[in-house]
Amino acid sequence: MQIKVILSFPFQMASSDSVTTCLSPAVHYVICKLGFEKKAIYDINNIVSENGEVCWQAITEHVCYLESDRSVDYIESIRSLGPVCESVNLHFKSLTKDKFVVQYALWFQWTNYTELFLEVFDVLQYAQSTEVALGLMKLTSCLERALGDVYLLIGKDCPFLLRDLLASEQLAVVFGEVVMDVLRIFIGSPYGLNLRNVLWHGFASPEEIPAKYCAMLLFLTAGLGQLLQIYLLKTKHVLVHRPYVTFIRLEDLDAFPDLNHETLSVVEELLQESNFVLRTMLPFWMAALTAFKQSRYADCVILLLPQLEAGLRLLFTTTNKCPNRLLTAEVNFYLKSVNGTLYAYLYWCVSPQEFLWDYLNHQEGPRIRDHLSHGEINLKAFPREIANQLLAFAITLLCRFSHEDMVVFKEHLIIKPLMNCASCYHSRFHPISRLKKQVSPCKLCDRHICTLYSPRPVLEVLVVLRKICTQCHQVSAQVIASIKSRYQQWTEKTLRSRQRHNYLRMLNSIKFLSPVLRLILVLITLELVNVHLVCKKNPSDYHQYLKFLKSVLQYTENLVTYTSPEKNKWDETMQLTNKALLKIRKFSDGKLTLIQSAT
Question: What residues does the DUF4209 domain cover (predicted)?
């Protein structure tokens, strides 16, 4: 299928009112109906004791397996577990908060976030659909993080994907294989309920997530805590929680002005008019605004990210006339991570794509989506700055794809500055942008260099160029520090004879070394400006070019060693530099650099 690209405005999207669900018929049936077909009633006393001890046998006996290969029969298992989930939900509703705390709070401590699970219990008492969905997203991310900590009791490198974590031998050793099968029925497998993915990827509306499944996962988490305690007592292991990811240099993320109450009031009206918002998802948007106003910044972003993806999918499917792609119709489709799908939908303009790549994907960016969905962030200390930036960006999308007759929003005195910021945004965390910052004194860096759709050769070259630049900075820092130290000793006449001679050799070397380092930085800058031309090289020339850059990198790495305070090998530095200059000149004479390819 040919993918169309939007090049002009305004863009007329199909009415989002016409979309009643983003779940395919099969997925909708599994989540919304299958677990309600069996009408059996189970005595809660057979599932949990009076003191809150989970009877796993009463749960695992409902896991069904295919006769052909003894793999989990997800359809029959969900059908059979449906009444169990209902019994657990009713059980929680019958408990007071104090009673719940007495029976279960201890068993949530292994997650390192007991308060979250107590909050989910509160949410279940009122069963407000949007809050249930939010609680389920937070619960699954926290549970994943805790399971990863358990994995590290035995294993070394924790799997990145939840489905791989749940399928690991390490967790089966701790909890038992059939218990892990139970978890996979609810989360982690596209053949099961897959509650985590359908919510975090913006497929499920609030009304499509039965509260009893949230209750069941809350219950299972307590049960896992009980099984873990047995394992820890038996093995004498100690569960260690990994530290949370913290955001540094928040000022680097500052792209939009601060949002105030007046702006948010305008947005509430804009939500009703924007074609970017699926009507079934409107409660999520409203809840995100409310969370921001209440300073619940993690909640705001958790609610917002899936809706950005849902809106972008709507944009993509409308433009390319493939409405079926809006649904969770294919296993392989919704197994794709946001990195593989989200950005493909945002193709109408460079700046929005650059913003999303910066915030969600680039390794040196904050990678909000990954860190939040995998439970790697302390939700209680989530920074307002990040929530402000993502919400402001979302507002520009709401406005950009509002009805044609809603020009009043785009020209609104409050909204227009946000639109201007969005249109002039340039990537800050792409390797090109980071390298530009490293060589920032050079005026050539003011030139715009495309950061989208960077092929592998471009990224490989950038890696080497950045390493060269880093080594050059390290050499400069070492030389400056050495000169200051030796000069002070010189003036104080505390240098021994050998040190005085070495100091003079240093001064002589610097006269030669300084312009060479400047030459290398200029070379880096010129290659950076023309970096996309590397894609035009044939494989042989590309290999030769990369080999040349790596030889320059080797030279700068040796320089770091020779100019260190421990070595002070200045004669060797001169010899090394002469060889490097000859190599650079020889390569330049062959007209193989990128700047020469451009002329």
Answer: 143-223
